[in-house]
Amino acid sequence: MGLEKKSALLEDLIKKCGGCAVVDGGFATQLEIHGAAINDPLWSAVSLIKNPELIKRVHMEYLEAGADIVVTSSYQATIPGFLSRGLSIEESESLLQKSVQLAVEARDRFWDKVSKVSGHSYNRALVAASIGSYGAYLADGSEYSGNYGEDVSLDKLKDFHRRRLQVLVEAGPDLLAFETIPNKLEAQACVELLEEEKVQIPAWICFTSVDGEKAPSGESFEECLEALNKSNNIYAVGINCAPPQFIENLIRKFAKLTKKAIVVYPNSGEVWDGKAKQWLPSQCFGDDEFEMFATKWRDLGAKLIGGCCRTTPSTIKAISKDLKRR
Ligand SMILES: C[S+](C)CC[C@H](N)C(=O)O
Ligand SMILES: N[C@@H](CCS)C(=O)O
Ligand SMILES: [Zn+2]
């Protein structure tokens, strides 16, 4: 299936959902709730090695909660990351492939079950393969600073992303989700790579923001979106893992800067301490607030809404109930 047909699948899903589809919530968060120890350079991807069944269970929980799109467990799964754990290239690639397979199996099993129930309100979900930023791989919190240092060039970022992208594409997800991109250079690298590799799967690219105005690097979103707006590979652009109170302003801003669909899935408002590797309490938003926010974000034009770190299936249930009420 080519890019146009796959994009049409997503378009149809959004229509079926009444104009706004629900993305799932914090994946690593839910793994931790179930006891996974992810304080590790591979973060949530350690579960691909240690407990793939738990990954499937978390996908099922988000599907039950009403997610129309499930995002795979590959955010911090990288070939160099796995190699430094002593895995071979073949094993590393097979884990990446497995991240897609687990989500597809969960989606198929869930759909098999609910489609037999008359009057259910679910849609057949799509699977988005997560591609975390270079900063996620560095595991030093730089997905929230955009500071990759002088020696990180466009080519270096393309080289970092290339093989993982190829393997994930080969595994056959419905979508590609570039997550927590903190600067213009990496956004550009991702777009150029999609084109060079002739990828036939629609992608979204999500940035972080730590001030609610700009990318973490200090670059404006106008600059960051320049290359993305020109690319047919990009279906949606937006924000993930930024605090919810920034989202309204950022949707308004993006709406002026792009014709692409807008995707937002903020975290709970807690702040990641990259050194201590823990979430610090801050202004934190619960499910009821997310429910209210979701209506507002939809009314402002967001087409894909979900949650990121520290949100859970109950957050997604609240959003889904709200957005599908009409
Ligand atoms: C989205 S952040 C909380 C992911 C974890 C981070 N890249 C780290 O490894 O410290
Ligand atoms: N998809 C990832 C994003 C981390 S910022 C997760 O939810 O764990
Ligand atoms: Zn997050």
From TrEMBL:
Kindly state what the record says about how the cofactor is bound.
Binds 1 zinc ion per subunit.
**What are the required cofactors?**
Zn(2+)
Q: Name one GO biological process term.
A: methionine biosynthetic process
Keywords for the protein's UniProt record, in alphabetical order: Metal-binding, Methyltransferase, Transferase, Zinc
Annotated residues for binding of Zn(2+): C241, C308, C309
Domain of life of the organism in this record? Answer: Eukaryota
Identify the residues that the record assigns to the Hcy-binding domain, covering every copy. 9-323
One GO MF term: S-adenosylmethionine-homocysteine S-methyltransferase activity
For this protein, the record's InterPro entries field holds: BHMT-like, HCY_dom, HCY_dom_sf, Hcy_S-methyltransferase
NCBIfam families with a match to the protein in the record: PRK09485.1 (NF007020)
- Function in brief: Catalyzes methyl transfer from S-methylmethionine (SMM) to adenosyl-L-homocysteine (AdoMet). SMM degradation (by HMT-1, HMT-2 and HMT-3) and biosynthesis (by MMT1) constitute the SMM cycle in plants, which is probably required to achieve short term control of AdoMet level.
Protein name, as recorded: Homocysteine-binding domain superfamily
According to its UniProt entry, this protein's organism is Arabidopsis thaliana x Arabidopsis arenosa
